[in-house]
Amino acid sequence: MQKRNSRGQTEAEFLRDYDPGNYDRPSVTVDLLILGVDETYENLKLLLIKRRDHPFLDCWALPGGFVQMDESGYQAAGRELAEETGLEGIYLEQIYTFTQPKRDPRMRVIDIAYLALIPVVPVTAGDDAREAAWFNVRFEPDALRIFSDDNRVRMEYSLTQKVFRNGVVKYTNFVPSCRTEERLAFDHAEILLEGLLQLRSKVTETDLAFNLVPEAFTLPDLQRVYELILGKEVYKANFRDKICEKVEETGEKGKSVTGRKLSQLYRYKFKES
Q1: What is the pLDDT of residues 246-258, one digit of tens each?
Q2: Domain residues of the chain, as ranges?
Q3: pLDDT tens digit sequence for 169-216
Q4: pLDDT band at 272 (very low <50, low <70, confident <90, very high)
Q5: Residue 197 is inside which H or E element, if any?
Q6: What does residue 62 show for φ and ψ, rounded to 5 degrees?
Q7: CATH code of the region 27-202
């Protein structure tokens, strides 16, 4: 027996008469926070594109685009990542859903932000961008800095700590304020900051950092990746104690980028669940 609602409709009858136009429908986009580490292990790198059209014409922004009707947010993020970098099978994780009503001046747009960790590869701009380039990014206690000497671009945000309350729980977060003429488009500074905070909180409890080194790596280089993410030096002995169960020797040696002599090469010890 089919169930009927208060108007006596079956589900099929309800759907036949349903008019989606009775409700406003926001658009949905994905934005990609694509991070890598440069070949010298001196900088955490951020991939940005320069916008070709309004809004934020000629501003640097995170790569992204609209979610198509036949794909999920994750599928859209993977498609955009492949279009921007040519890479597939890359670590991709949702950061947060950004829903401020006026975050996009065109219309009501809900944005799903994703974090991608990839090797630093050559990139070319897509159809909706003038340029695509890797920038250095520094997350400091009181500032967020994004800069590129090649492009002669520097963007800086001061960070103010604010306490927020969720039920009985209080937590501290950062609010960025741009202090340079050039700035990221839309709310992409907030997306970048949230992604860096999440990456920093997860890196010591997960194996995320292995996505930022080659298949064969030295421990000094891996340690440097952790230091770039955490924004501080890591004590060598403690680091190796924590990492030893996650790596295995390759039987070969290689030149450490951060060292002066040949070091044992390791690989990530993949464990099937």
Answers
A1: 999 999 998 888 7
A2: 27-202, 208-268
A3: 998 889 999 999 999 999 999 999 999 999 999 999 999 999 999 999
A4: low
A5: helix 188-202
A6: -70, 145
A7: 3.90.79.10
Q: How far apart are CA 13 and CA 250, in angstroms?
A: 64
| Distance in angstroms (rounded) separating the CA atoms of residues 177 and 267 | 41
As a CATH number, domain 208-268 is 1.10.10.10
Q: How many CB atoms lie within 10 A of CB 13?
A: 14
Q: Which residues are catalytic?
A: 131
Q: How many CB atoms lie within 10 A of CB 224?
A: 23
The pair of structure tokens assigned to 212 is 């930022």
- Concatenated DSSP letters of 7-64: TS--HHHHHHH--GGGS---EEEEEEEEEEE-TTS--EEEEEEEESSSSSTT-EE--E
Secondary element (H or E) of residue 80: helix 73-85
Q: CB of 174 within 8 A of CB of 200? A: no
Scan for tokens 């759907």, then name that residue: 15
Segment 109-124 shows an average pLDDT of 92
Cα gap 79→30, rounded to integer Å: 10
pLDDT band at 1 (very low <50, low <70, confident <90, very high): confident
The pLDDT, as a whole number, for residue 217 is 94
